[in-house]
């Protein structure tokens, strides 16, 4: 193999091409690769941060759910106690009203008993007068003997 001038010329052109590439082509490519690597690292860091925030948010949501469940259970218990109190109050009022109705019915029955006794006394007095009239075979004057009939009524 012979070394001649073309080989040296090609060698010089190759070194010029390598120098040109290292000076003008390689730095933008290296910068682009470095920028891309930085963007990927930033994206991964942001993903890790978002994952941590999501975990925190899920924990806060769970805490709020537990709190709201406890609060709703307390409200349901309060409502049930209030409903029971209302039922007891209604029972008390119904019992009281029933007692009033029974008392009123007893008073009315007593009044009717008194009226029936008065009517019976008047009927017995009338029968007694008729019986006495038949026994004596003479007519008894009710106006004259009103005092006698009044006393008879009170005795009966």
From TrEMBL:
Localization in the cell: Cell membrane; Endomembrane system
Keyword Transmembrane: yes
UniProt membrane topology term: Single-pass membrane protein
Single GO MF annotation: proton-transporting ATP synthase activity, rotational mechanism
Pfam (any one): ATP-synt_B
Coiled-coil segments on the chain, per record: 44-71
Keyword ATP-binding tagged: no
InterPro entries given in the database record: ATP_synth_B-like_membr_sf (IPR028987), ATP_synth_b/b'su_bac/chlpt (IPR002146), ATP_synth_F0_bsu_bac (IPR005864), ATP_synthase_B_chain (IPR050059)
Domain of life: Bacteria
Entry keywords, A to Z: ATP synthesis, Cell membrane, CF(0), Coiled coil, Hydrogen ion transport, Ion transport, Membrane, Transmembrane, Transmembrane helix, Transport
GO CC terms of this entry: endomembrane system; plasma membrane; proton-transporting ATP synthase complex
Transmembrane segments: 6-26
SUPFAM superfamilies: F1F0 ATP synthase subunit B, membrane domain
Function: Component of the F(0) channel, it forms part of the peripheral stalk, linking F(1) to F(0). The b'-subunit is a diverged and duplicated form of b found in plants and photosynthetic bacteria. F(1)F(0) ATP synthase produces ATP from ADP in the presence of a proton or sodium gradient. F-type ATPases consist of two structural domains, F(1) containing the extramembraneous catalytic core and F(0) containing the membrane proton channel, linked together by a central stalk and a peripheral stalk. During catalysis, ATP synthesis in the catalytic domain of F(1) is coupled via a rotary mechanism of the central stalk subunits to proton translocation.
Complex formation: F-type ATPases have 2 components, F(1) - the catalytic core - and F(0) - the membrane proton channel. F(1) has five subunits: alpha(3), beta(3), gamma(1), delta(1), epsilon(1). F(0) has four main subunits: a(1), b(2) and c(10-14). The alpha and beta chains form an alternating ring which encloses part of the gamma chain. F(1) is attached to F(0) by a central stalk formed by the gamma and epsilon chains, while a peripheral stalk is formed by the delta and b chains.
Family indicated by similarity: Belongs to the ATPase B chain family.
Name of the protein: ATP synthase subunit b
Source organism per UniProt: Rhodoferax lacus
Gene: atpF
């Amino acid at each position: 193999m012979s070394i001649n001038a073309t080989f040296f010329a090609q060698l010089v052109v190759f070194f010029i091409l390598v120098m040109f590439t290292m000076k003008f082509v390689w730095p933008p490519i290296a910068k682009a690769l470095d920028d891309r690597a930085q963007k990927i690292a930033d994206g991964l860091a942001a993903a890790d941060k978002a994952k941590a925030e999501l975990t925190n948010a899920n924990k806060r949501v769970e805490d709020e759910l537990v709190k709201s469940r406890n609060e709703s259970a307390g409200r349901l218990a309060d409502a049930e106690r209030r409903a029971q109190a209302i039922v007891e109050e209604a029972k008390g009022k119904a019992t009281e009203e029933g007692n009033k109705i029974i008392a009123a019915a007893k008073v009315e029955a007593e009044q009717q008993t008194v009226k029936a006794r008065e009517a019976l006394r008047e009927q017995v007095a009338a029968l007694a007068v008729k019986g006495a009239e038949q026994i004596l075979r003479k007519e008894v004057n009710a106006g004259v003997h009103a005092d006698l009939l009044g006393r008879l009524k009170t005795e009966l």
